[in-house]
């Protein structure tokens, strides 16, 4: 019985550590200001195309016109942190963070544009 209790304790401890790592990864990417957005593009091998970067920059400009500050960053999935393991992201996935955590999750830039348009409309 003690042996089983020990196994259960170790499993719970390991599960708690895993959840903490993903929470720390999210906190590293969240914005510090209340209504600021941080757009993160995740990639495996190569950074996004110039067209994708231009679309993301256009989204940032659109948000600035709506008085919503934003920033864009590009993260390699298996760089310093393994974001695929921590956040479950795939190549070309875009996450948008606010001060609370993940606000939007999109695999397609056009879907993200629709989400951003809904955000900026009253």
Automatic annotation (TrEMBL):
Keyword line: Signal
Domain of life (superkingdom): Bacteria
First and last residue of the signal peptide: 1-21
The protein, known as: Lipoprotein
């Amino acid at each position: 019985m003690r042996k089983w209790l020990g196994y259960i304790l170790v499993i719970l401890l390991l599960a708690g550590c895993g959840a903490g790592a993903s929470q720390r990864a999210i906190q590293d990417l969240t914005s510090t200001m209340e209504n600021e957005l941080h757009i993160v593009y995740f990639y495996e091998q190569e950074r996004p195309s110039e067209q994708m970067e231009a679309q993301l920059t256009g989204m940032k400009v659109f948000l600035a016109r709506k008085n919503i500050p934003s920033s864009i960053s590009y993260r390699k999935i298996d760089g310093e942190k393994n974001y695929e393991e921590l956040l479950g992201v795939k190549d070309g996935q875009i996450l948008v963070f606010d001060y609370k955590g993940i606000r939007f999750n999109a695999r397609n830039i056009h879907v993200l544009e629709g989400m951003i348009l809904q955000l900026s409309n009253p």
